[in-house]
């Protein structure tokens, strides 16, 4: 039977992804799509290893970092910038597993789990940012024409 921590992480992931898609704007939906794909593909490629290094999962992690950096540069959302920073930390754990000893395995896995929970919490903050921040609200057509 899975641990209560697994149930918490799964429930948080489902909640964050559903709210990002349902209540978020285009940046949140694009981020949710990337997070969902990473969650799916990571399970599919988890068995591809060289020694102790899960190279395919590391590539998936790198692709999520690139996706989040792209979104944070394209859209004016603070949560995306923080999520990209958290994903950089997760990517660093892959380098640590490549150069570290087998003793560090559980600390590396735990760090990745904590970073995932952090990104999901940042996703929930992103939903709040998309609905509350004045710069995140879509402008009406008449407001755009006054600016131009």
UniProtKB/TrEMBL annotation:
User: For this UniProt entry, which segments traverse the membrane?
Assistant: 6-24, 55-73, 80-101, 113-136
Could you name the domain of life of the organism this protein comes from? Bacteria
Which controlled-vocabulary keywords does the entry list? Membrane, Transmembrane, Transmembrane helix
Designated name of the protein: Uncharacterized protein
Q: Which species? A: Brevundimonas mediterranea
């Amino acid at each position: 039977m899975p641990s209560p921590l697994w149930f918490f992480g799964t429930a948080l992931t489902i909640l964050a992804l559903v709210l990002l898609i349902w209540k978020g704007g285009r940046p949140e939906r694009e981020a949710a799509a990337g997070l969902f794909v990473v969650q799916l593909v990571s399970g599919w490629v988890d068995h591809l290893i060289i020694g102790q290094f899960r190279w395919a999962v590391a590539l998936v992690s790198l692709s999520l970092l690139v996706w989040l950096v792209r979104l944070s540069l394209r859209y004016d959302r603070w949560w995306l910038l923080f999520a990209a920073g958290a994903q950089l930390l997760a990517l660093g754990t892959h380098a640590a597993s490549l150069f570290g000893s087998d003793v560090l395995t559980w600390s590396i896995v735990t760090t990745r789990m904590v970073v995932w929970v952090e990104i999901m919490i940042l996703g929930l903050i992103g939903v709040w940012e998309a609905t509350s921040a004045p710069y995140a609200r879509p402008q009406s057509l008449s407001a755009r024409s006054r600016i131009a």
